[in-house]
Amino acid sequence: MSTLACTSVELKSSFVKAEAHSLKDNVDHPKDGVGKTTLIQKATQALKSSGIPIDGFYTEEVRVDGRRTGFDVVTLSGGRGTLSKVGSDSTTARREYRVGQYVVDLVSFEQLVLPVLRNVNLDSGTGKKVCVIDEIGKMELFSQSFIRAVRQTLAGSGTVILGTIPIPKGKPLGLVEEIRSRKDVKVFSVTKENRDSLLEDIVTTVQNCRK
């Protein structure tokens, strides 16, 4: 995924972009699996330990008997909710939001994430907050409210974003392309080979964004 950084004059936000090793990786897995969430978690701990105010969320695989059955959203304050689960092939009467075999639980996602994004935009009087958004991908972008909240956070002056976006593939995702093209954003491409060496650069970039 990619690390983004701030306004056109100076960096404000960071996003991490994962690079898949083959087209098959991209098709079979809605989340890329190169370890970007682990990298974001390590960066979050480093920033917290230096006293920087930080909030947000990350996505986490759910596995049963070694088989991936879905993804949860986990907030930095300890909240947890369903992002998606493996769905049946049969159609249902109600509308389903799907990415491959996964059915997205939009209500659960929005109930957990939207309050976090609203709160992080409030002036805390403790300097610029860091907002972790892992990730801005196909599943999350079914939510128009989430798209509006991310844009509002990007437009604000009191928040630095540390987030993740997917590699370009298939039909472009509007918000992802907006983020990728911003002059106030720095993007880090993450692979299994370079993910450990990027940690210090990402933490330093975020710290500089707060200045």
Please report which band the strand proportion falls in: under 5%, 5-15%, 15-25%, 25-35%, 35-45% or over 45%: 25-35%
The radius of gyration is 16 Å
Please report the number of helical segments: 6
Count of extended strands: 9
Mean pLDDT: 82
How are the strands of the biggest sheet laid out side by side?
A: 5-6-4-3-2-7-8-1-9
Major sheet details: 9 strands, mixed
Sketch the topology as an H/E string, one letter per element: EHHEEEEEHEHEHEH
List the helices and strands and how they pair.
Layout: E1 13-18, H1 23-28, H2 36-49, E2 54-64, E3 67-75, E4 80-86, E5 97-99, E6 102-104, H3 106-120, E7 129-133, H4 144-155, E8 159-165, H5 174-181, E9 185-190, H6 199-209
Parallel strand pairs: 1-8, 1-9, 2-7, 7-8
Antiparallel strand pairs: 2-3, 3-4, 4-6, 5-6
Structure in words:
Residues about 1-10 and about 20-30 have low confidence and may be disordered. This protein has a 9-stranded mixed beta sheet, with helices on both faces. The protein has helices spanning about 25-30, 35-50, 105-120, 145-155, 175-180, 200-210, and strands spanning about 15-20, 55-65, 65-75, 80-85, 95-100, 100-105, 130-135, 160-165, 185-190. The chain has 6 helices and 9 strands; from the N terminus they run βααβββββαβαβαβα. It is α/β, with parallel strands linked by helices and about 210 residues long.
